[in-house]
Amino acid sequence: MTKTPNLKQSTLLQLYARAAAPCRDYYGLTITNSCISINAWKITHGPHVMPKQKICLLEDVIQDKFLQEEIKNIFGGNVFDYIMDLGNKKRKLENLPTALFLNILKYLRANDVLKLMQTNKIFFELCNTELVWLMMFQKILNRSPSIEEKRMALEYGWREVLKKRMAYIRKVFNENKQQKKKQLADPTRNKKVVKAK
Asked: Which of 10, 15, 84, 188 has its CA 20 to 30 A from that of 174?
């Protein structure tokens, strides 16, 4: 007896892709611990067509060669390998439980997390979350966020808050640098005026 797929579990990953030209179709992929859901918006048949959804257990994906090829063609080899590893219960860095993955990221430098994001689509999606950007904020600025920053994050997200703070820091740094250059260029500013008796 086959289990019924349950998408109400916690989502491990959500990806979106566009079909290769000249096709304009869009695809969405949701991956949980035990199943995947593929949504297909067939734009070529008109913009108002409802998406078609296919929900499949991971163990069924392992057996379904046609679905494997579809995933590989639409989402790429990295996503395909990720799904196959999940289905075969192979433990790798990218398919560790979320809490464990985040715990590992805590020990990396901010620059290393940014490099990890650039390795492939899976790591980009896993690291491009609010929890990771909050962690990056704390690592880079070496402090906890203020109440004002928390409010900003609710509206814009932690990535944007970090970008704004970094832009402000660069601006202040450049202003201070310019001020020091002016002081060094004008030697009379630094000398104390001695009054004659």
From this structure: 188
Helix-strand-coil split of the chain, %, nearest 5? 55, 15, 30
113 vs 128: CA distance, rounded Å: 10
Q: For the chain, give every domain's residue range.
A: 13-95, 98-184
Residues 6 or more apart whose Cβ sits within 8 Å of residue 107: none
62 contacts 88 by C-beta, under 8 angstroms: yes
pTM: 0.74
Sheet holding 26-31, edge to edge: 13-18, 26-31, 35-41, 52-57
pLDDT of residue 185: 81
Q: What is the pLDDT of residue 114?
A: 95
- How far are the Cα atoms of 58, 110, 163, 164 from residue 170, in angstroms, in the given order? 47, 18, 11, 10
